[in-house]
Amino acid sequence: MDKKKKILIIGGSVGAAALVALIVVSIVLANRPSALIARGLANTIADAKRIELIDAADDVANGGSIAVSANLDKLAKDDLAVQAKVYSDAKDLRGAYEMTVTEDDDTVLQANVIFNQDKVTFRCPEVIDGIYGINFKNLEKNLPGSIFDPDEETDYSLDDDQFEYLLGLKDTIKNNKNLQRDSEAIAVKYRQLAIEKFVKYSDLGRASKTITVGDEKIPCTVISLTVDQDDLALITQDLIDYAKEDKDLEKYIYRVAADAAFEDDVDEYVDQFYDSLDDMEDEIENLGDSDIEIKIDFYITKAGRRMAQIDAGFDFNGEETEMSLVLGKNVSTSKEMSLTVEDKKYGDTYKIVYSVNENSTRMYDAEIKITELKTMSTHNSERKTSIKVEWDRKGGDFSFKYKNDYSDMVVKGTLLQKGDKYIFVLTNIRIDGETTPTVKSLELTVTIDRHDPAPNVPANFTEVTTMDKRDFKHLVEDIDDGFTELWDKYFD
Q1: Helix or strand holding residue 463 (H, E)
Q2: The whole model's pTM is what?
Q3: Interval 198-219: pLDDT, tens
Q4: Chain segment 377-421, per-residue pLDDT in tens
Q5: Dist CA 248 CA 254 (whole Å)
Q6: Helix (DSSP H) and strand (DSSP E) numbers for the chain
Q7: Looking at the DSSP assignment, which residues form a beta bridge with residue 210?
Q8: Distance between CA atoms of 289 and 485, rounded to whole angstroms?
Q9: Residues β-bridged to residue 360
Q10: Using CA atoms, how far apart are residues 349 and 168, in angstroms rounded to an integer?
Q11: CB atoms within 10 A of CB 76
Q12: HSE on the CB side for 41, CA within 13 Å?
């Protein structure tokens, strides 16, 4: 064999060995307890987002609409109908609110508020002439010296904190562009960090077990974590230390505070957060004087790596509580899920069971049963609540039934899915066997559209922040008088 062939064979062998080593290391890392738990939780959360209700809600929040309409002829003086509609696009910071009131075929009122990350406008031709709005980009220029400036001491002057909040609103809104995405990233990072710290400091166990959920047997890897008061102190300290040095977290807290601090200083909100970390750190010393044991068992499916069940026990100075969350193989398709919490000292138990009889293209039939058992010195007290939903997807018949030990309620209607739209029409409400008379005449209709873009903000409008006292006073009075007149005409 010549020298070149030997080199190629040796080189190939080394490469193959490196590849095998890489595969082995990847498998080992992927099967670490912290990795198994993190992946199981992440996959389960991803499954939950595919549940029809959650998926539809996410679509509506990020580019859809909800409209509610009703016939008010039994409540108003004339044949009046009203529709309110909300558009939402959280990802692109756009939205709108619309209200239309009609008498027979004539429009009595048509008002809207439309906004994006730069502007907000209000229009209602039946009450005021023209369109009024605010350009957020011009607030820093327009507000000082305006009728809203605290230094001007007008009837419309804001207080100092409100004024400072509005001066910085342009940047606050701009920073909100990716707030939803960044919130999810922060949550994932600290969830992963907490798992790693619990695994690091806990007594660790690993086993294989097959559990039964409903009529389904699920083989699982069980990762058990047990920590005491000393372990908990170390975990908490590590998390606090990390949070205090986390610049991304600090930026995120400032962004959240900028939204919340309308009547307070942003720095005060941020200081309160870090003060709470200091308070937690002070309390760590007291953990050593406690008698604590926390045990958590994570049941991770061997197929698909989902979180099938989580059992936990908490013992704080003799106050013992046990919890069991059962999710099944995949939360988006599970026929049964449950949560049980039991106070071991007093014997009180709280249990929620969600069961699905059918979830197909033809029918959705599911029930939630809630049982609360209280153990007293002389007798046991049990309270039961049930919620049952039946929806004929083809025919549209829909019913929602709520019942507890004291009363029951049945809501009936039609629910049809047409493309991206869900259209619900309320036909009857029965409470304790008594039908609500006016429900059917209301013709209450709720339309949920998963993809319905918000209208654009008008290009031209009267800037509110540059109005003088006289014009702004007339605007406020016209709005108040206009809506009062309409109310008095049709309802008073």
Answers
A1: strand 462-463
A2: 0.83
A3: 899 999 999 999 999 988 999 9
A4: 667 788 999 999 999 999 999 999 999 988 999 999 999 999 999
A5: 10
A6: 12, 21
A7: 219
A8: 68
A9: none
A10: 50
A11: 17
A12: 16
